[in-house]
Design brief:
globular, 203 residues
Length: 203
């Protein structure tokens, strides 16, 4: 499974680019020249919790790998793109998007902290992160009884760093130094849940 997003933030011209970018999960079966017509579309929506906390939702369209090669979702905000690495944790993929700001007086832009099931791009089966930031994962983090899939953040976010049940995300917003968003996430066990790295062993 190849999971990636599109977008660029390298040149000055990239600041004002508004072309729609997307997040993808593609099954690498060896088929060449795939396009979006070979994938199932999931749509990002918006809503509020019972406490009026604003967040994002995802559709739950069936991805049948006998007839499709994966999934994709278009990033809905103007200028939104993905320029950092997604992070797989258990059956979820955490990924952060960014939206540049053309004003030199602001902190570079904003973004969204997103989560989806990596196998099909659908929302998590249970609440995966603390949307209202009260330290507890419960129904108050749901949008229309469904687990939320994203929350907006001030400043351009880095890739998420997940350690245990905590997600740390640095941003370009500064208040006497760089700001780090710390959020409680779903506490799970098993593979792809802890620190993912490698070390070369030599005799």
């Amino acid at each position: 499974m190849v999971i990636f997003g599109t977008g660029q933030y390298v040149t000055i011209a990239d600041i004002t680019t508004t072309q729609t970018q997307s997040m993808y999960g593609v099954w690498d079966s060896g088929t060449k020249e795939l396009d979006q017509g070979d994938l199932v579309r999931q749509d990002i929506g918006f809503g509020t919790t019972t406490e009026s906390v604003f967040g994002r939702t995802l559709t739950d369209n069936l991805v049948d790998y006998s007839s499709s090669d994966g999934w994709y979702m278009d990033l809905p905000d103007s200028g939104e793109r993905l320029i950092t690495d997604p992070v797989v944790r258990g059956d979820l993929v955490f990924f952060n998007t960014m939206i540049p700001d053309t004003s030199p007086c602001n902190f570079g832009g904003s973004g969204w902290l997103m989560v989806a099931k990596w196998i099909d791009g659908t929302p998590p089966d249970a609440v995966a992160f603390d949307l209202n930031n009260d330290g507890t994962l419960d129904a108050l983090d749901e949008i229309l009884t469904d687990p939320s899939a994203g929350v907006e953040i001030r400043g351009i976010p880095t890739s998420p760093v997940n350690l245990g049940n905590i997600r740390d995300t640095s941003t370009t917003e500064t208040t006497g130094g760089s700001t780090i968003d710390v959020t409680v996430i779903e506490d799970i066990g098993g593979p792809n849940t802890g620190r993912l790295s490698w070390e070369e062993l030599t005799p």
